Backbone:
């Protein structure tokens, strides 16, 4: 799991140790993501399955894509599909994805890159592996997070942010036991590159075996900790957490995590996706690729899609993939 790293973590700015009076957030629940398939058949873990939307707000959905070692000819992606009313955040840890939309946006994201797409009023979108990966096979691993938009911004103009892995803010825990990548939002005064409509913080942590980390956290945000791989614990009572599990935390000032001393050979460290944001607290009407506030808005989204008002599929083939 390379993503983005450094040779000497001790050269990085350090996250300040929270004050002794800071309250460590307790664990409200730990759930295990069921496994399934998405798009043309690539394996995913449904990270938020079974968790109440009020605990996730402002987040809606998250899939861990892979980790999978493809044989030649096996890599898969998605067909063209619509979105409206929210943002998709695709983070590639290993491998590569090619993306394109009906507004002319697109590009390639690879190790440590993030493609942040604000669907807003609506567009058509496709994500596929590049032809080189289809031919050679190889490791593929990533995440796709859906971030809700408040009512006033659901019909905003679509936009892209291509966040290169080298642009994320890299930090060290106070003792050097963890590498912190700030993808979006702010941590201890350090700003990530992602520009967000809804105030959120998104981090990727790599915690060395036996290390513990206490991160200062905005008390007005919720807090979610998802284990990408490895074994560890979360919260002041050190609740066990392993690959494919999500911890929902309660209120407080500190997110506390730790890695077990012993890790599997294929996962030498504990990797965590830590996220939180300011709840929107508006009604959510979600179905398939649309996230709106009311059923009537959902019906309108489907009608607009069927009428071609969310865009049309470009006539030229998608880069790296033949579109029929």
Residues:
């Amino acid at each position: 799991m390379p993503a983005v790293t450094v040779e000497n973590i001790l050269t990085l700015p350090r996250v300040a140790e929270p004050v002794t009076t800071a309250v460590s957030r307790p664990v409200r629940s730990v759930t295990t993501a069921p496994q399934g398939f998405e798009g043309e058949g690539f394996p995913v873990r449904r990270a938020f399955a079974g968790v109440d939307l009020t605990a996730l707000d402002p987040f809606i959905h998250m899939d861990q894509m892979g980790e999978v070692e493809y044989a030649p000819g096996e890599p898969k992606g998605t067909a063209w599909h619509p979105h409206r009313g929210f943002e998709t955040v695709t983070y590639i840890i290993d491998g590569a994805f090619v993306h394109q939309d009906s507004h002319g946006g697109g590009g390639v994201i690879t190790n440590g890159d993030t493609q942040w797409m604000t669907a807003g009023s609506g567009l058509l979108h496709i994500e596929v592996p590049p032809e080189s990966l289809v031919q050679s096979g190889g490791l593929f691993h990533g995440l796709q997070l859906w971030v809700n938009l408040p009512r006033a911004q659901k019909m905003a103009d679509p936009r892209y942010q291509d966040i290169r892995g080298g642009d994320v803010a890299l930090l060290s825990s106070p003792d050097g036991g963890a590498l912190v990548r700030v993808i979006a939002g702010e941590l201890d005064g350090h700003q990530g590159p992602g520009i967000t409509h809804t105030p959120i913080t998104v981090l990727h942590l790599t915690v060395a075996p036996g290390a513990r980390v206490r991160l200062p956290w905005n008390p007005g945000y919720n807090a979610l900790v998802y284990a990408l791989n490895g074994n560890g614990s979360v919260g002041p009572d050190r609740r066990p957490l392993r690959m494919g599990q999500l911890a929902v935390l309660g209120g407080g000032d500190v997110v506390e995590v730790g890695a077990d001393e012993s890790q599997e050979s294929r996962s030498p460290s504990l990797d965590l996706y830590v996220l939180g944001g300011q709840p929107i607290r508006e009604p959510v009407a979600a179905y398939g690729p649309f996230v709106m506030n009311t059923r009537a808005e959902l019906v309108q989204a489907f009608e607009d899609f069927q009428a071609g008002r969310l865009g049309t599929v470009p006539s030229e083939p998608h880069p790296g993939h033949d579109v029929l």
About this structure: The two ends are 34 Å apart (CA to CA). Residues 318-324 have pLDDT under 50 and may be disordered.
